[in-house]
Predict the 3D structure of the following.
Amino acid sequence: MYLAHVRAENFRIFGSAPQRRGDEDESLRTDFGPGISVLVGENDSGKTAIVDAIRLCLLTTAADFYRITKDDFHAGGNGRAHTFSITCAFRGLTVQEQGTFLELVTTEESGETALYVTLKAQLMDPLRPSRVSVTTRTGFDGKRPALDGAARELLKATYLRPLRDAEAERRAGGRRRTGPRARGAGRPSAVPGPHLSPGVLPRAPSRSRTR
């Protein structure tokens, strides 16, 4: 299986999908292939937002803590949105993978089996930006069962820190190991693919990890 599609509404620079005919689509909708994908664009074009959207939706194997703040909610002409959503869609599931995620997968009209993971965040109190409600569910519309612990562990992505962040940590005395550049201003950003990192590939849960 591989990450085939990412869509986001009202997340950072990405606005909402059209509500009426003639409205402009300001949301994020991007497709990836079964290999390694590279994001190329100018500074502030949304590369970092795309990578962070994937990190938020799937979490990472490093278990980095990320606190959602009001700055993650899109601010447009009508003010700041109070909700945002991020959906990651996986395709190319093998028979074994379909069995692993049996209760969570979606069979589409074409007969293809896909796995949709949708994170929805809601700003509970505009005056207290730290109060954010977050849910992560499956299904095309994000209304199917929530991800349980085992399924979430299997879908975690491996995130490689940008070299600029690693350098800042080194100067501050950090000892965390660093890897190749995964994203950065004005440079390509690597997006998880089926062979990029083991953290993106589902693997059969062991007895000790099954809840």
